[in-house]
Write a structure and sequence with these properties.
Number of strands of chain B: 15
CATH class of the largest domain in chain A: Alpha Beta
Strand order of the largest sheet of chain B: 11-10-9-12-8-1-6-7-13
Shape of chain B: globular
Order of helices and strands of chain B: EEEEEHEHEHEHEEEEHEEEH
Shape of chain A: elongated
Low-confidence stretches of chain A: none
Bound molecules: flavin-adenine dinucleotide, adenosine monophosphate
CATH topology of the largest domain in chain A: Rossmann fold
Radius of gyration of chain A: 21 Å
Number of helices of chain B: 6
Largest sheet of chain B: 9 strands, mixed
Low-confidence stretches of chain B: none
CATH topology of chain B: Rossmann fold
Radius of gyration of chain B: 21 Å
Helix content of chain B: 25-40%
CATH architecture of the largest domain in chain A: 3-Layer(aba) Sandwich
Distance between the termini of chain B: 54 Å
CATH superfamily of the largest domain in chain A: HUPs
CATH superfamily of chain B: HUPs
Strand content of chain B: 25-35%
Strand content of chain A: 25-35%
CATH class of chain B: Alpha Beta
Structural class of chain A: alpha/beta
Largest interface: A-B, 100 and 82 residues
Number of domains of chain A: 2
Mean pLDDT of chain A: 96
Number of helices of chain A: 7
Oligomer: heterodimer
Number of strands of chain A: 17
Number of domains of chain B: 1
Strand order of the largest sheet of chain A: 7-10-6-1-4-5-11
Chain lengths: 320, 247
Amino acid sequence: MPVLIYVDHADNHIKKSSFEALTYGVDLASAMGTTADAVVLGTVADNLASLGKYGIKKVYQVADAKLNTLDAQVFTQVIGEVIANTGSDTIVFSGNVTGKAVAPRLSARLKAGLVTGAVGLPDLSSGFTVKKTVFSGKAFAFVQLLTTIKIISINPNSYSTKEVGGTAETRQLSIPVPDSKLKVTATNKVSGSVPLSEAEIVVSGGRGLKGPENWGMVEELAGLLGAATACSRPVADSHWRPHHEHVGQTGLAIAPNLYIAIGISGAIQHLAGVNRSKVIVVINKDPEAPFFKAADYGIAGDAFEVVPKIIEAVKKLKGK
Amino acid sequence: MKILVCISKTPDTTAKIAFTDNNTKFAADGVQWILNPYDEWYALVRALELKEKDGSIVLHLINVGGADAEPVIRKALALGGDEAIRVNTDSRDSFSIAAQIAAYAKTAAYDLILTGKETIDFNGSSIGAMVAELLDMPYIALATKFDLNGTTATVTREIEGGEEVAEAGLPLVVSCQKGMAEARIPNMRGIMAARTKPLKVIEGVAVEALTAISSFSLPPAKAGVKMIPADQAEELVRLLHEEARAI
Ligand SMILES: Cc1cc2nc3c(=O)[nH]c(=O)nc-3n(C[C@H](O)[C@H](O)[C@H](O)COP(=O)(O)OP(=O)(O)OC[C@H]3O[C@@H](n4cnc5c(N)ncnc54)[C@H](O)[C@@H]3O)c2cc1C
Ligand SMILES: Nc1ncnc2c1ncn2[C@@H]1O[C@H](COP(=O)(O)O)[C@@H](O)[C@H]1O
């Protein structure tokens, strides 16, 4: 049975995290000796046949504009119908906001074993066992899915996309879409900036920056690197920065390629949200700050002197 | 109006994470257990605020777990709430926990069910959605604000790169995160009152787990930090570009 990958979109375009899910699903299908299909709910401007370049064979679409806003109840019902149509028995989601709302609902609907926060392909040598992060990134668990239908929701930024070339066949499915019981009345996007959960590079500031008026250099560095900005919990609690920038055990957990921590001590609860970053840079004036133990590169120095120098060096590197 | 808040017990955020029995069990010796922060700070406290505004609200707490969860349930009751229900099983599979909560909720007609965004030990972020599906209720995940106006809920939820405001009728299931409310500390009166509040223990229904954890592992230790002198920012940028290939 083919693997089915749920493809998520926003503002008319497929989300980056969904491309990771596509590659994951294609690799999984080849390990299982089957093919990979994708499903899109709602409408997008992107050319769906071009998903073939990730190795997708068929793209199913339920092109009802009602599906352009997330209602987990409606989405679950429609995806359930798609699965009944396609006979897929392995479903892949990206664990982004949509995946978090829909994948577990689908699991309950189909009585299908679910693993969320997956960070690698399943081990198929005995059963179907998937590695996932637990204890907020401080450990991994190996979870066996015991049911015929299996659902995997992968951690964003844990699988790199790969293009293999090809064109997918596209198929429209006419599945009746029930009316949503939710009414979206406002959408506030932080304009121009990179969404934190999808960012490759994150520049983050802590209480060491003393006050919100000092975030100019954080934003400048982030701008130069095409990075998102983040902060420690006390910074969000003091309203120096918006809540959605708070990373850590009780904030967002992120896994960028590069995390630059400025004036953050590196408390265990902070590390819990950032320790899956590939490269960690710490700038802290206290050489004993615990964060250095979790870092790849460190500068023990005053952020107000060091960061402007880094900005200059990055400008030079980028030829600006 | 009846509200149900789902509460779980998790190891303290500073607990040492280690495993025993050939890496199949969490090493719980000496570990402090706390109320899962998302359940406490956001779901429970927001429910308490709603109840403070509208005294007619009945607020119940539910935990699926063994008797060892009772100190944490009492702590939740010390913050507030009218009574707690413990479904006496120790299953750790998200679906079976959700099925227990749903089976109980079916008998009691709640208008609103709140969960935390996720447990900080298993990080499933699943149970709210599963409960909603099992009860055929709408579900809003990752809420950062919640308000009630009669029987209409106004909920702000996280979306990639921002927020979205949605209105929904009741009944409704919502998972709660940062922004919903500010953390509180129970006061002496609350702690005294909690001792006599009802904590009902009910037996679970038969459900089959869909998943099982076969083992755990710890991430490999970091190779160690490379320190760069404070006056050599350019060297850091060079290393990030050439060695780490991160910029
Ligand atoms: C249950 C629980 C959950 C929590 N969840 C989270 C969470 O999700 N995320 C989170 O971040 N925290 C969380 N915390 C809080 C956490 O324990 C720490 O208190 C917090 O991370 C500290 O933030 P900070 O590093 O910005 O501030 P501080 O600890 O005050 O550290 C500031 C740092 O800046 C350095 N500094 C000062 N001046 C300068 C300068 N001029 N240049 C360079 N460096 C400078 C200092 O040396 C210090 O290391 C949680 C706590 C609890 C109890
Ligand atoms: N054993 C439990 N009993 C009651 N509620 C729970 C239990 N485990 C988790 N929950 C609730 O479900 C939410 C999400 O948990 P999880 O899906 O495991 O990350 C938690 O924040 C709690 O509100």
